[in-house]
Specification:
- Helices cover 46% and strands 0% of the residues.
- The chain has six helices and no strands.
- Helix 3 packs across helix 4.
């Protein structure tokens, strides 16, 4: 019974009653009537950037990988095959993986997929605009300049 009375804030012989007004007088930050008291300011935390245009700088060896894959595309892929992105991706991936191995680059699967997306967007897509064009929630893209 003593636990129930402590939870329900009923005064018991060993526990004094809770007085909200007395607590507010001791601590002005908890007072509803005191408008001038400001709680300690906590700096706002910016939301995580989930946009496709996050600033990402590929590794230094990426230029060598891009050159290898672009040479493959120029010599081995016909212009008609560039429209089928699924087929193109499946044909470019082995060359891309081999170029990564030759460059001695150790990267995660997510970064590998991101680098391949960047490479295909730059080579046969619209470059940095490609991820934005693929999103359903973006209906308009305005470009003000190259920077």
């Amino acid at each position: 019974m003593a636990i129930f009375s402590k939870i329900s804030n009923r005064p018991t012989a060993d526990m004094p009653a809770f007085d909200a007004d007395a607590t507010a007088e001791r601590n002005p930050l908890r007072s509803q009537n005191n408008q001038s008291a400001q709680p300690h300011a906590v700096p706002p935390v910016p939301p995580p950037d989930t946009s496709a245009s996050r600033a990402y700088s590929p590794p230094a060896q990426f230029a060598q990988i891009v050159e290898t894959v672009q040479n493959y595309l120029v010599t081995e892929i016909k212009t008609a095959d560039l429209n089928d992105t699924t087929n193109l991706r499946s044909r470019v991936e082995p060359v891309f993986d081999e170029a990564i191995a030759e460059a001695g680059l150790v990267i995660s699967r997510a970064e590998r997929r991101h680098l391949l997306d960047l490479l295909l967007a730059d080579t046969v897509g619209f470059g940095p605009l490609q991820p934005l064009l693929e999103r359903e929630d973006i209906t308009e893209i305005m470009v003000n300049g190259p920077k």
